[in-house]
Design a protein that fits this description.
Layout: H1 5-15, H2 19-22, E1 27-33, E2 38-42, E3 48-52, E4 57-68, E5 75-85, H3 88-104, E6 114-123, E7 136-146, E8 152-161, E9 164-172, H4 178-202
Antiparallel strand pairs: 1-4, 2-3, 4-5, 5-9, 6-7, 7-8, 8-9
């Protein structure tokens, strides 16, 4: 597992999906990625803010992409994230916090004008319910709306492998079946986990 800040930064840069990794038609949003040395924190008003990495977290990176479909058919908005912790306990704490935050904030505001409602979450450790791809995982499900527009299905998927946590979010318009969005997010998460494994095995 990465033990230094440079190692952590190298891992997240190599693991986190770029627009091209998501597939044809995806482009970068603005901003395209998070500010170095920060991670997302849910504040007391249930708004997501970027704050400096705390002690025990070596590196974190988020990249934001979107695919705007031709003919006004809607869009698919995605986020890819990786966080490298200094210990398994710290990494596990990130997943526990994620589960607790849904109870505290079933409605959350990721950015100005954006709203996620009706959030629920489920944690699935390795070996439970046929989960055999990560040491632990969390799935959040809800509805996303932007500037008062129509609600869209929202998925936030996290998985921990040792001291590394990877995550993806997927939001799509009503023209995109839920199965399509779940497959897109699930495939991205699996490929990011595989990148983590490959990089660790190469050490």
């Amino acid at each position: 597992m990465p033990a230094t800040v440079p190692d952590g930064r190298g891992l997240v840069d190599a693991v986190v999906f770029t627009p091209a990794d998501w597939g044809r038609g995806f482009t970068a949003r603005k901003p395209a990625e998070s500010t170095p040395g920060t991670w997302a924190v849910l504040d007391g008003d249930c708004r997501w803010q970027r704050e400096r990495l705390p002690a025990g977290v070596l590196a974190g990176l988020s990249r934001y992409s979107v695919r705007r479909d031709a003919g006004g058919a809607g869009s698919v908005t995605v986020t890819a994230v990786a966080t490298v912790h200094a210990s398994v306990l710290s990494a596990d704490g990130q997943l526990v916090t994620t589960l607790e935050e849904v109870l505290r904030c079933p409605e959350q505001r990721p950015r100005d004008g954006e709203l996620i409602t009706g959030l629920t979450s489920t944690g699935t450790p390795f070996g439970a319910r046929e989960q055999n791809y990560a040491d632990d995982s969390v799935l959040e499900v809800g509805l996303y709306s932007e500037r008062g527009g129509a609600a869209q299905p929202y998925r936030w998927m996290l998985a921990r492998l040792g001291t590394v946590v990877v995550a993806v979010s997927v939001t799509g318009s009503k023209n995109h079946p839920q199965a399509e969005l779940d497959q897109l997010g699930g495939n991205a998460l699996a490929r990011m986990l595989e990148r983590v494994r490959q990089r660790l095995e190469a050490k």
